[in-house]
Amino acid sequence: MREPYAVREAGLPDRVTVYEVGPRDGLQNEKAVVPVEVKAEFVTRLAAAGHRVIETTSFVHPKWVPQLADAAELLGLVEKVPGVRYPVLVPNERGLDRALEHGVEEIAVFASATETFARRNLNRTLASQFEMFEPVVARALENGLRVRAYVSMCFGDPWEGPTPVGQVVEVGRRLLDMGCFELSLGDTIGVGTPGHVTALIGAFGGPSRLAVHFHDTYGQALANTLAALRAGVTVVDASTGGIGGCPYADSATGNLATEDLVWMLHGLGVETGLDLASLVETSTWLAARLGRPSPSRVVQALGETPTGGTADHDVKE
Amino acid sequence: MREPYAVREAGLPDRVTVYEVGPRDGLQNEKAVVPVEVKAEFVTRLAAAGHRVIETTSFVHPKWVPQLADAAELLGLVEKVPGVRYPVLVPNERGLDRALEHGVEEIAVFASATETFARRNLNRTLASQFEMFEPVVARALENGLRVRAYVSMCFGDPWEGPTPVGQVVEVGRRLLDMGCFELSLGDTIGVGTPGHVTALIGAFGGPSRLAVHFHDTYGQALANTLAALRAGVTVVDASTGGIGGCPYADSATGNLATEDLVWMLHGLGVETGLDLASLVETSTWLAARLGRPSPSRVVQALGETPTGGTADHDVKE
C-alpha cells in the first residue's frame, strides 16, 4: 500500500500521540446500530494497529446516547492489551459509579466553553458546570483514576459567534486545577482556522497538558492540527475513518480522520507508532458494517476498491 | 450564512490570489456532459463572486478530453469582465493556433516533473518535453500573451516514488527561463505533506513566481496550502466545490475546493476579494447540474440543504 514520503519540517514534535475517539465519539454519532461484538473487535483492531489510547465508550445515560447503551457489556468483552489505555467518557457521578464498577482506569469529562452550550447540553450555566465535575473528578482521583477533560465549543458555537480565547482558558484552568491531567480543546462545530488555534494555545501560555480535537465540518481539521503541532501540541484526537459527527450527508464528516492525520504526521517524519495499512484496513472493515463509505480521504484513496485505489490511473491532462 | 472568524496569523501574506481552475481542471475530469451554456454561466458566476483569474477551458484535442471539445464555442459565449483574466490551457502549437484565433490573452502549458509521466502523458522524455513547449511559449510571447506553466507530479508520481526536489527545480527553471511568468507546482496525485512543500519552495530559493496546485486525494491539500503560505506563496489554485479529479468514488475529491480554501484564508484574515456565500451558491447550483454532491466540506455544511446546513444541530454529547 502507498505510504507518505517523510520530509521533516523544522519546529515540530518528534512524536505525537493520536488519541483515538472512534469507538466513542465516532460510533455515538452513527445512525447504524453496531453489535457489541463488532465494537469489541473494532477496539481490538485499533490496539493491534498500534494505538496506545482508545476512548472505548461512554457511561452517559442510554436515553441520550442509545448507541452506547452497551458500554458495560463492551468493557467486559474488550481484551485489554498491556500498555494501552482505554478511557471512558463519564458525564456525571452516576456514570463514574458505573466506571468504577467496571474497572475503568481513565475517564474523560465533557465541559463547555460557552454559556449557551453549557445550558443546552449540560443543563448548567457556564459557571455552575464545575459543580457537576468537581465531585466526579475528586472521587475519580481518590480512586486512582486519571481524568481527561474535554472543553467543547472552544472556537465558536452555533449561537454566540466566536468564543473568546480568555473564556476558554478560564474554563480550562478550572478543570486543570481540579486535577485533570489533560485538556482536549474541541472545535465541536469545526469553524476554527489555524491562526485561531495558534492564538488559543498561546493564551494558555503554551502547549503543556493540551490536546486538540478538531472537526472537519469546514475542511479545516488537518490545517488546524498543523498549527497546533507548530505550537508544540503532542496529543491529537482523531476518529478511525473520520466516523461520527454529521449524519446530515453521507459524505460529510465530523471528526478528523485518523488516517488523514497519520498520513500528514508520517509525511512530516513525526512518529506515531501506528501502522497506516492496518488503520485503513480497519476503516474499510468498519465502513462495511456501518453501511456507508468512510469520509477519510486516505481510506477512500487506498481502502475501498478491490485493487487498493484507482486514483493513480486518472492523471491524463 | 455562517462565515469564518478572522484571527490573523503572523508571517502570512496579507492577500492571496485564488487561481480558479474549476471550468478547466474541474470539468475535464467530470463524467457528466455539461452543456456549453451551463459552462458559460458557471464562468460568469465565478467572476461575479469576485474571481479575477478563471482558467476557462483547454485547447487540447477533443479525442483526449471530449468534455472540453466546446472550448471555442465557450470562449465566444463568455462575457468578459474587465480586470478578469480568462487563461486557457494549451498543450501544443495547434492548441496555440486556436487560442490565438479566439483572442485568448493568457495561456497555460502543462509540463511533467517526472520521466514516466512525461512519457505517458506527453509522449516525450523529461528532457525533450521542452522542445514541445519552446515554440508554444515563444510564439505566445511574440503575440503578447502571458504564459503560465504547470509542473505536474512535483511531489511524487504513481511509478517513481517521491520526486526529487532538485528535479522539480530544474524543470521549473527551464520554463521560467523560456519566459513563463508563473509556475504552478502541482501535487497531481495528492501525496505531498507540509514539510515537503516547505522543502520544495526552499529549493526554488523562495516563493517568487510560484503558485501551488494541491489535490486532496489524501486530505492534505489545505495543510499543504498553509505550509506554502508560510513560505510566502501568494497564488493558490483551487476548484469550485472541489470538482474534478477522482471519479472513482462519489464523495472523493481531486482538486482543493475553493470554498474550503477561502474559509481558511478569510479565517486567517487573508484577503481574497471573494464572496464566500456566492461561491457556495455557485457550487450548489453546479452540483445539481453535475448530478453529484460537491466534495467541498464548506459546501456540504452550508450549501446543500434547504435550511443552509444542519451541522449545528448535532452537537449533543
UniProtKB/TrEMBL annotation, chains A, B:
Keyword Lyase appears in the UniProt entry: yes
Gene Ontology terms for molecular function: lyase activity
InterPro entries the UniProt entry points to: Aldolase_TIM, HMGL, PYR_CT
Protein origin, superkingdom: Bacteria
Domain Pyruvate carboxyltransferase, residue spans: 16-280
Swiss-Prot/TrEMBL keywords: Lyase, Metal-binding
Protein name per UniProt: Hydroxymethylglutaryl-CoA lyase
Organism from which the protein derives: Streptosporangium pseudovulgare
